[in-house]
Amino acid sequence: MASFSLPHIHDNPDGGWGPSSSNIPEQFKFKDIPYAPYSKSDKLGRFADWNDNLDGRQTAVGLPTTQNVRGGGAGRNRRDGAQAFGSGTASAFAYFHVEDEASFSLVDNKPAPPRRGGAFTRGRGSARGTGNYAARGNQRGGRGGYNNNRGGAQRGGRRGWRDWEKNNRTRESSVAISPQWRMLEEIEFHRLAKLRLEVDEPENVDTYGKVFAYEKSYDRITTKTERPLQLVDRIKYNTTTSDDPVIQELAAKNTATVYTTDAILSVLMCAPRSVYPWDIVILREGNNLYLDKRDGGPFDTVTVNENASDPPQDPTPPNPNNPNEKAAPEVPSINSATSLSLEATYINQNFGFQSVIENGTPAPVDFAHPNPFYGPEETEPLASCGYRYRVFDLGITEDEDIKICVRTEVDAYIAGQGNPREGQGLVTIRALNEFDPRAQGAGGAPDWRSKLDSQRGAVVATEMKNNSCKLAKWTVQSVLAGADLMKIGYISRGNPRDNTRHVILSTASMRPTDFAAQLNVSLANGWGIVRTVTDLCMKMPEGKYVLIKDPNKSVIRLYAVPLTAFTTEDEEGEAFEEDPESTA
């Protein structure tokens, strides 16, 4: 017969319930389990009760419980206002949402309660499920005003048709990245935004070109006295840094360490604001750095509504592997991102050509040297443009000798405000364009013809939001050139469906430093970015590099590329195909 023996009982010498801690083996001790305070009056229930709210917080994402909505009570098993024991402490078992679930919310599909008298039910904090207010995502709680619902969109960015596709749209890189390229550094925008470097006033090295006087009558244009935008046939050069003969002469004299243009430098200084992709080619020769652009790259065109919540998009090319997809239309939409960029570039050039006095008084002003890019075989007339080569000192200490030579541009001068040859009264001219307020990508811009004269502040605020990067680059270019004023024209289409005819509705005048403060543009931060990129490149050996802004992320990357990259022979990618046996 089998024997029976009682199990060993661990007695607690302290007189409490359960075994003593001294009698429990180490492997059975729950040392890493957090302790949650409780009360003996609490009832044991389910492991996860999604309808109960014991600590006064919502248990479901975006969906308030019945107890919270009606009285704000702690739970259905307690009286209203009674506090649960231990509810004031942080729950160690609380569930925290990860980053991917931060945008998840539950949607209540139940029909809305019947209307009782007024338009809203007061005092219950309930959201209406029908009408325009529900479509706007607004919610009226108690006696307060409107609050944004979690499931709705923010004001000014209301949700619309096929909204789920907007986050899935991807952009292509501004340059094709070869597998043979070697990535050297990756910097996020939030790291760039923390950089800072104070730079003193620059040294003016030399001046080239000729500028005309600005036509002051354009400052008096209103929406009722609009002027048509004319097509003016003039030549204006946008030569890259290494092809500039003046910079080549200055580099031979060791004038500076880094050489670039104001258009390239402004993109780098305003990099944290950029959304569209761009790339800067960096060439290191000896102890010198040259920041160049590619022909036909993003530096030759002007963006439109780059910083809007829903910027203009190019049509998605058809998938060649899917025979069911229709071929792309031969004529792109006039409101696509590429078409608007070309239109804005055309408007900027012609507005600058048109708003100056070429013949008559005041007479044009010649700088110290003629235009360095205008050859003797050229027959077309030159546009009003002056080049000022200026050197900025980027050294932190007195022992450092890091200087950057920048070719800056000015477009005109204001008669009677000093000597333009000495850098007084110089002006930069730019233009903002309106295409169609009802089109996709308009960014909620108001109608300029009805709002520009009466509510100019609203128009300017919208443009500062939708074109933050573009306006910041223009302002930085004006500050680098030492211009006293910026002239910004407001130009709209004569017909929203015709992108070939435009009218000038108004012209604004502002000082670059004051406008930079309104845009919250920090030149010290921009110089810090320039110095950081300079230090990264100076640590590398001689060669060619490219700094690329990721098309879909807020990050820039530095790649090492072959010396034959971005040349005519490299268009087909032949320069990247090397035979390892022949180079061994």
UniProtKB/TrEMBL annotation:
It is found in: Cytoplasm. Residues 1-23, 58-81, 107-161, 300-331 are annotated as: Disordered. GO terms for biological process: cap-dependent translational initiation; formation of cytoplasmic translation initiation complex. Keywords: Cytoplasm, Initiation factor, Protein biosynthesis, RNA-binding. One of its GO terms (molecular function) is mRNA cap binding. One of its GO terms (cellular component) is eukaryotic translation initiation factor 3 complex. The keyword Cytoplasm applies. Residues 312-321 have a biased composition (Pro residues). Pfam families: eIF-3_zeta. Residues 298-312 are annotated as: RNA gate. Belongs to the eIF-3 subunit D family. mRNA cap-binding component of the eukaryotic translation initiation factor 3 (eIF-3) complex, which is involved in protein synthesis of a specialized repertoire of mRNAs and, together with other initiation factors, stimulates binding of mRNA and methionyl-tRNAi to the 40S ribosome. The eIF-3 complex specifically targets and initiates translation of a subset of mRNAs involved in cell proliferation. In the eIF-3 complex, eif3d specifically recognizes and binds the 7-methylguanosine cap of a subset of mRNAs. Component of the eukaryotic translation initiation factor 3 (eIF-3) complex. The RNA gate region regulates mRNA cap recognition to prevent promiscuous mRNA-binding before assembly of eif3d into the full eukaryotic translation initiation factor 3 (eIF-3) complex. HAMAP family: eIF3d. This is Eukaryotic translation initiation factor 3 subunit D.
